[in-house]
Amino acid sequence: MMATRAISAADDATGPRATGATVEPRVLDWIRDDFASRAADHDTDGSFPFENFAILHRHGLLSAALPADLGGGGADLARLAKIVRAVSYGDPSTGLVLVMQYLFTAQFARGRNWAPGLRERVLRSVIDDGALVNGLRVEPDLGTPGRGGVPATVVRRTATGWVLNGRKIYSTGAPGLKWMSVWAATDEDEPRIGGVLVDSATPGVRIEPTWNHLGMRATGSHDVVFEDVRIPDDQLSALVRLQDQHLLLDAEFQLRNALLISIVYDSVAHAARDWFVSWLQQRVPTALGAPLSTLPRFQELVGRIEALLYANRLLLERSIHMPDPAAAGTVKYIVTNNAVQAVQLAIDAIGNPALTRAHPLERHLRNVLCSRVHMPQDDIVLTGLGRAAFAATHG
């Protein structure tokens, strides 16, 4: 178990502020334990953890991915990984929203496809106000754009400017978002596609509370509806023809997406492992007269879980310190499937107690299963690996 000295609420408010690059381990330990104390309630209610993001902002962690010369934390990938791990161990729903924050704020900082003045305005709101940012891409008919297709969300030019209409589903963090980068197409004969930045307070933006998922229930991934939303010219990214959409791909974004999402779910597996080990140490059946942890079969089973998580740690550490964008999807496939297997091993060993809502293992199982829905999804990764193998041995 990861026991640490408690930090009081006063310490949290007045103690040493983190900067993202220099956050103290004790601060991350406190955040982890504090978020964990509320995770079950947010899961039960499906409520969005606003207080968690207020804490992260107070410690400078919502802007950790931004360069220091822009006023951000200047955290490298290794530091971001530590923050995401601590947060996700406590509450993976918060961890997933934080990953999206890091991905999209860093993308804005790189200045790709966005007007400079808009870029500065967005980043300043993140640093000063703790604004949350995410990209909304998935639609009811389109599914995820990672599999191709033209979005049904449309931005059209009118006599008075651009107007946006459409619906996005699985909009992670929707209740807390200030900025939404909306994947949309123009209504031209030959549509152009790209991002449209929307301030959530703009008239015509509406959140429908549709998120009632198996796991990651506190992410607030509701539908967001756009009805005649007026968009300033500078809030359109560089729009491209459908056949040129590869020009919008950001290799750094995709690498960090795969690795940081993997860490979210690996952290769930670690939390499950810690609860399972503690339960085995405390469970003393009458017929045995000793803790279940003394039985070789449970020692072997915990050893299997440890081996899976050890493999994850080695793979993630290598990928963080020696990044390989071409292998990021494979890393995500291996790490998330190992995490699922680790939690399932604990579930299988305990039986009924593992599936009661009185214990967190049931929640960890529901959360870790959600790892499979994130891009790149398993079938895409495996198909790519298979094609590469055939190509390498052709002829």
From TrEMBL:
Residues 149-229 form the Acyl-CoA oxidase/dehydrogenase middle domain. GO terms for molecular function: flavin adenine dinucleotide binding; oxidoreductase activity, acting on the CH-CH group of donors. Gene3D superfamilies: Acyl-CoA dehydrogenase/oxidase, N-terminal domain (1.10.540.10), Butyryl-CoA Dehydrogenase, subunit A, domain 2 (2.40.110.10), Butyryl-CoA Dehydrogenase, subunit A, domain 3 (1.20.140.10). It comes from the Bacteria. It holds the Pfam family Acyl-CoA_dh_N. The keyword Oxidoreductase applies. InterPro entries: Acyl-CoA_DH_C, Acyl-CoA_Oxase/DH_mid-dom, Acyl-CoA_Oxase/DH_mid-dom_sf, AcylCo_DH-like_C, AcylCoA_DH/ox_N, AcylCoA_DH/ox_N_sf, AcylCoA_DH/oxidase_NM_dom_sf, Mito_Isobutyryl-CoADH. Keywords: Flavoprotein, Oxidoreductase. Residues 1-20 are annotated as: Disordered. Residues 27-102 form the Acyl-CoA dehydrogenase/oxidase N-terminal domain. The keyword Ribonucleoprotein does not apply. Residues 268-374 form the Acyl-CoA dehydrogenase C-terminal domain. PANTHER family: ISOBUTYRYL-COA DEHYDROGENASE, ISOBUTYRYL-COA DEHYDROGENASE, MITOCHONDRIAL. This is Acyl-CoA dehydrogenase. It comes from Sphingobium indicum (strain DSM 16413 / CCM 7287 / MTCC 6362 / UT26 / NBRC 101211 / UT26S) (Sphingobium japonicum). The lineage of its organism: Bacteria, Pseudomonadati, Pseudomonadota, Alphaproteobacteria, Sphingomonadales.
